Amino acid sequence: MSKNILNEKTSYEYYQNDVLIRIENFIQLDKKLESLLLNDKVMQKVEQFLGGKASLFKDKVNFKSPGGTPDVLHQDIQAKWDNYGTSDFVTIGIPLDKCNIETSCVYFFKNQSKNPRKILGEYSEPLSWEDFNKEDFEPLIASPGDVSFHDAFIPHYSESQKSGNLRRIIWLTFNKSSCGNFRQKYYADKLKSYPPNNRRHKDVEYKFKV
């Protein structure tokens, strides 16, 4: 694995039935975009939540095209993020389009009394709806110019895309710098376990879980 993995001139693109659904590891490709997304105001707010200096852990853009499929109920921590130095992460959501029920906005668990900071299911597997009521989830209605913040433990999901419009959201995840900088290791590991479509072996079946 190249030690310069984060200096590559291509991001990681993921497709479903030839439709682009996600781009990862993109922020270093454009310095102006990097400066815009990681500006002082953003970093100050992230560091306020984390209680110290922050390091970027991962970056992605999710695309929901018309007719796009639902995203399963899960916690981000179930993707084994706690293998990377900490379980304390803050993720910023930056909508590039209107996010509402028709365009498949994300539903977040709102019953904090039932949201302990622990894994509520199995690693890499969706959470079971037998343990939740949809009434305990609230849609995050947002527009370009809005920003959201959530940790790695809050359950969330999205429905299928019911509108004729594209819905895109940038997600930036950070951890406390004192816990280490694991972004390069995370993406090196992901290239092995779930590589982008153009880096897959024909004789290997890849399955996205959470």
Can you offer a commentary on this structure?
- This protein has 3 helices and 10 strands, in the order ββααββββββββα.
- It is α+β, with helices and mostly antiparallel strands and 210 residues long.
- The chain has one domain: Sandwich (Jelly Rolls).
- Strands 1-2-3-10-5-8 form a 6-stranded antiparallel beta sheet. It has a 4-stranded antiparallel beta sheet with strand order 4-9-6-7, with no helix packed on it.
- The radius of gyration is 17 Å and the shape is globular.
**Main pleated-sheet profile:** 6 strands, antiparallel
How much helix, percentage-wise, in residues?
10-25%
CATH class placement: Mainly Beta
Q: Spell out the helices and strands N to C.
A: EEHHEEEEEEEEH
Task: Tell me the distance between the termini.
Answer: 24 Å
CATH H level, superfamily name: q2cbj1_9rhob like domain
Regions with little confidence, pLDDT below 50 for 5+ residues: 1-5
In the residues, how many domains can be counted?
A: 1
Number of strands: 10
Give the CATH topology.
Jelly Rolls
Choose one word for the global shape. Answer: globular
CATH architecture: Sandwich
Overall SS class: alpha+beta
Compute the number of helices.
3
